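User: Okay, second chain of the day. Same drill as before: sequence in, C-alpha cells out.
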Amino acid sequence: MNTTTVPELKSDNPSWLDELRLPDNYANTLGGIKLPTKPSFGKLNKHRFSRVHPDSSYQVPVLIVEDKDSGETYIATHAVAGYLGKAAVPKLLRLAVDNAGVPKIIAQPIPEQSGRQNLWHVTCIQAIQIAQTEWVRIESDMNAAQYTIIKAVNNLGDPKWPDQTMPELIQAVFLNNVISSPDHPYIKQLEGRV
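Assistant: Same drill. C-alpha cells below.
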C-alpha cells in the first residue's frame, strides 16, 4: 500500500499548489506517437493566411461531385463520369496549409474548354498561384462576383507541410466519399433508381 502523505492545502504552504500545476509542455510528456492532423477539404481560408504546395506531385486532377442536398462532396472515377453528367466537375486537388499548420485539400478550378471566364474561378486560381510563394487569404466580394486576395503584411515563415503523400491525404479526406460504380447511391438517386 502506498503510504505517501499529501501535504495539506494551506495558505502558508504555496509550494503544494505548484506541485499540482501542469507544465506548459504537458501534452508532449504523455508519450506515444502523435498522429498527423487529418486534412479538411474546401477553399483557401478567409480568416487565416495559407500557402499552397508548389510541387506537381501535390496536384491531382479529379472529378468532384457536390451533393448540395446532403452537404457531401465526393470524388468520382472517370469510369462513372457518363453516369454523373454535369454533376461531375473537373478540379485540380492541391495541398494547402494555413499559418497554424493545419492542412487542407483545396479544389482549384480547371478553366472551361470554351474559354468562357468565370471571375470566381479566375481569382481563385490567381490566389492559389500567389499562395505557392506567399501567404494569402481570400474574401468573397459579392458585388464584383470574385474573390479579393489579401497578402500577409509580415513574413509568416515557412509553411509546415504534412509528412503524408498526396494520395494519403486525399484518402484521408475522401475515404468514404468515392463514386466508382454505377450502383453508388448518388448515381441511383440521379437516375431515379431509389
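The CA atoms of residues 124 and 133 lie 15 Å apart.

User: Thanks, on to the next one.
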